[in-house]
Amino acid sequence: MADETILITGANGIVGCELARALVRRSEPPALRLLVRGDAATVEAKAQWLLDWIDAPEPARERIQVLRGDVAREDLGLPPGERARLESEVTGILHAAACTSFSQTAAQGETGNVLGTRNALELAKRCRKLDRFGLVSTAYVAGTRRGEIDEDDLEVEAGFCNEYERSKARAELEGRKAAAAGLPVATYRLGVVVGRLSDGHISRMSGVYPVWRIFHRGLMAMIPGDEAQAVDLIPSDYAAAAIAHLFGPAFRAGANYHVCAGADRSLTLGELLPAVADCIEDAAPGWKAKGYPEPASVDGATFASFADTVELVAHVSLRATVRQMRLFTEQLDYPKRFSIERFERDLAGSGLELPHAREWLGTMIAHGVHSDWRAQGWEAAAYG
Ligand SMILES: NC(=O)c1ccc[n+]([C@@H]2O[C@H](COP(=O)([O-])OP(=O)(O)OC[C@H]3O[C@@H](n4cnc5c(N)ncnc54)[C@H](OP(=O)(O)O)[C@@H]3O)[C@@H](O)[C@H]2O)c1
């Protein structure tokens, strides 16, 4: 394992930076090639931030290189010499670069996610020592399906809440085509990623964080969705350690995983709302005394008509708030349970154990409240 060289794309993203942190903490850490995009100054700022975030123990630190590239471009936009070096040394690729905006257009999804994945797979095919390719994906490729979702399910013609989900499903299809042609591809579908179990830190507060921020501000009048559904949140360090295990000793070409907490370790939507309120109160004593109304749980149609009314009449900041809520909460209209059977089976022996969400939700909320919902990504480090 010590001769491994792993290329991580999207290395400065929420997931990419935790994957790098997890890999350098292995007893025999691999050499890392961390691909980030931007002009020279941006890449330099990202590299400095990333090395701090990863905080690699000494021998591993010397084996990390940050590369400038763009997965949407052929050969990941790498200069020929760099590309040739990767082709000769890389043993594994973890493809975590993605366009993750829920409001992306179909064209952005096609370029950032489908073409980006195809380009990463093309590079993998030319890496002479490569014995594994990990495609980081989302459990929400299940789109508007309801009920039990199997780890192998993939329906690219199914309905989707947004172009993010559709393009990630199409990206998985690219992975399956490459696997069918003999490339050792495994797919890791994440639930909703939140901060680290250890301290709640997270590099970007996207996903559920804008909803929690709105809740904290007392602006959340209602939330759509069936209260009985599990909300599958997964801490970023646990998710990264699990992927590092599945991409390491437990690697299985062709396997698809729901890297999710699972319903038994998740709070339902009905439990989550009061639990978040309790955690905010713990982090900011006196918050409940402000008398903000508890958000009412409503069906999707009621929420949509509220959002439409806000579009017509409301102040610009309330419109922005409701739009942000709508982007995240649309999925709640399609209750589902992600099967984690294979994930749990292949993780056995890793020593990893995820406690129930009620045990660590407070860590995530406290970090959000105390940082005033400001993340600690490279942008904060570079621009304050
Ligand atoms: N966070 C979650 O809750 C969650 C849940 C389920 C699945 N996932 C999956 O996890 C993976 C990583 O997501 P994330 O949460 O880490 O998202 P993120 O924080 O938005 O990070 C995405 C990373 O990809 C980079 N990137 C985007 N387009 C690129 C391009 N053309 N070339 C090179 N780099 C590019 C971004 O660079 P910039 O910094 O320059 O934008 C960023 O570093 C994705 O596959 C996503 O679908 C995440």
Strand content: 15-25%
Class by SSE composition:
alpha/beta
Could you state the order of secondary-structure elements as H and E? EHEHHEHEHEEHEEHEEEHEEHEHHEHHH
- Spatial strand arrangement across the major sheet: 3-2-1-4-5-7-12
N-to-C CA distance? 39 Å
Report on this structure.
- Helix 1 (14-24) links the parallel strand 1 and strand 2.
- The chain contains 14 helices and 15 strands.
- Helix 10 (300-313) runs antiparallel to helix 11 (316-329).
- It is globular and about 60 Å long.
- The two termini are 39 Å apart.
- The longest helix has 21 residues, at 106-126.
- It has a domain at 5-204 and 232-264 and 336-355 and 376-383: 3-Layer(aba) Sandwich (Rossmann fold).
- The chain is an alpha/beta fold and 384 residues long.
- The site of NADP nicotinamide-adenine-dinucleotide phosphate has 28 residues, from helix 1, helix 5, strand 5 and strand 8.
Topology:
Elements: E1 5-9, H1 14-24, E2 31-36, H2 40-54, H3 58-61, E3 64-68, H4 80-89, E4 92-95, H5 106-126, E5 132-138, E6 147-149, H6 163-180, E7 185-190, E8 192-194, H7 209-216, E9 222-224, E10 230-231, E11 233-235, H8 236-246, E12 256-259, E13 267-268, H9 269-283, E14 296-298, H10 300-313, H11 316-329, E15 336-338, H12 341-347, H13 357-370, H14 378-383
Parallel strand pairs: 1-2, 1-4, 2-3, 4-5, 5-7, 6-15, 7-12, 8-11, 9-14
Antiparallel strand pairs: 10-13
The structure holds NADP nicotinamide-adenine-dinucleotide phosphate.
